[in-house]
Amino acid sequence: MITVHVNAIGMRDYPRDLVCRAVGEALRHEGVASAEISVTFMSDAEITELQTRYLGRSSVTDVLSFALHVKGQDPLGDIYIGHGQALRQAAAAGAPPEEELARLAVHGTLHVLGYDHPEGPERAACKMFRVQEEVLRKAVGP
């Protein structure tokens, strides 16, 4: 069974159903039938604090994810999405905000499943990003 928890304390504009669908689609794409994923939307200040504490980088980010399972166990993970940063990225890219939030949920899910990507210009061409966009298209629909 796939369980997705969405947390958005104090936020009104977030696509809960789309995020759940996107996470579920990413898990199914990878052949996962049983998993528990938590997605939490955070303010810029909250996600910056989390990134500083756990990654040692004092800057706002769009998504952080933490795998909480060991190899051989059903995937268990926490995904934190910087709501404000996601909305700025959507505006800069000319993408619908809901789509960008779903994209980040997929991205975080893939990290929980063990995917990684390089930094720099080659990042957008790596396997993780190709899978991310394929899954996102299925979740968002035509």
- Helix-strand pattern: EHEHEEHHH
Number of helices: 5
Q: pLDDT under 50 segments (min length 5)?
A: none
Structural class comes to: alpha/beta
Quick one: biggest sheet? 4 strands, mixed
Estimate the mean pLDDT confidence: 92
Distance between the termini: 27 Å
Describe this structure in words.
The chain has 142 residues and is α/β, with parallel strands linked by helices. It is built from five helices and four strands; from the N terminus they run βαβαββααα. A four-stranded mixed beta sheet has the order 1-2-4-3. Helix 1 links the parallel strand 1 (2-7) and strand 2 (35-42). It is globular, with a radius of gyration of 14 Å. The two termini are 27 Å apart.
For the structure shown, list the relevant keywords.
about 140 residues, 4 strands, alpha/beta, single chain, four-stranded mixed beta sheet
Secondary-structure map:
Layout: E1 2-7, H1 16-29, E2 35-42, H2 44-55, E3 63-67, E4 76-82, H3 83-93, H4 97-112, H5 127-140
Parallel strand pairs: 1-2, 2-4
Antiparallel strand pairs: 3-4
Helix pairs in contact: 1-4, 1-5, 3-4, 4-5
